[in-house]
Design goal:
Pfam families: SAP18. Keywords: Repressor, Transcription, Transcription regulation. This is Histone deacetylase complex subunit SAP18. By secondary structure, the protein is mostly beta strands. The chain folds into two domains: 31 residues, no CATH class; 125 residues, Ubiquitin-like (UB roll), CATH 3.10.20.550. Helix content is 6%, strand content 35%. A hairpin with a 5-residue loop joins strand 2 and strand 3. The radius of gyration is 25 Å and the shape is globular. It starts with a strand and ends with a strand.
Length: 176
């Protein structure tokens, strides 16, 4: 038998024999589902206008319920912060600690969630995005709003847990 040449078409391999006949051969797909992340665009804070971020806080360690954001209502614990999309969770933690002195205690846990309008169903959805802790470094400290797909018009909900009731530090946190 003579040699053969081949060409790929989708997930099938077409093989040409020496006589010019085509044979189809099943080939495993080698395509991997790999998420392609776009690099964050740097924000020039002196040239870019900040956005007004509505932040809602609790001090019992739990996020607000979705229904607390329904029918034009929002929780009463609203903070309004001017910030940029490249703001980190650690920056936001510092701003909240300026307003709530009791949150400055070492070991206070801050759990962040984005609250956004659900386009598939009426109402809002709550998506937890990360956490920080006063007095400790963590892997989520440098996480930005932009990296979590925050959009202008979304809310930020922060569940604050005092150090006495805070979850035990995991391997992700380390002292400053």
């Amino acid at each position: 038998m003579g040699s053969s040449s081949s060409a790929r078409c989708g997930s099938r391999k077409l093989e040409l024999t020496s006589r010019g006949h085509r044979r189809k051969k099943a080939v495993e797909s080698r395509v991997t589902q790999e998420e392609i992340k776009e690099p964050e665009k740097p924000i020039h804070r002196e040239k870019t206008c900040p956005l007004l971020l509505c932040v809602f806080t609790t001090n019992d360690g739990r996020h607000h319920r979705r229904d607390e954001f329904s029918r034009g209502n929002v929780p009463s614990s609203e903070l309004q912060i001017y910030i940029w999309m490249d703001a980190t969770l650690k920056e936001l933690t510092s701003l909240v600690k300026e307003v709530y002195p009791e949150a400055r205690k070492k070991g206070t846990h801050f759990n962040f969630a984005i609250v956004f309008m659900d386009i598939k169903r009426p109402g809002y959805r709550v998506k937890e995005i990360g956490s920080t802790m006063s007095g400790r470094k963590g892997t989520d400290d440098s996480m930005t709003l932009q990296s979590q797909k925050f959009q202008i018009g979304d809310y930020l909900d922060i569940a604050i847990t005092p150090p006495i009731r805070a979850p035990p530090p995991s391997g992700r946190m380390r002292p400053y």
